[in-house]
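Thread title: Can someone regenerate the structure for this chain?

I was given the following input by a collaborator and told the matching structure tokens would be attached. They weren't. Posting the sequence so someone can regenerate them.
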Amino acid sequence: MRTYNIHEAKTHLSRLIERAASGEAFVIAKAGKPMVKVVAIDAVEAPRRKRTGFLAGRIKVPADFDDMGAAEIDAMFGGEG
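Best answer:
Regenerated them for you:
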């Protein structure tokens, strides 16, 4: 993906808009630091990675998970276990 500085983007804005509209995304940078990514509105975005359940099928949670260590916790905090 090509990067343009702000001055260059302002100078060639019409040309860059046409390129973005045809599917060529680009980045505009200020002092070498990327500031914005320009893409066509109808461009297909990459799907976001699903984080919830990313270990599904790889680990097993014990049935008594919510009660594990309850007696020890009650003993530490003066509860009745």
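Residues 55 and 61 are 11 Å apart (CA to CA).
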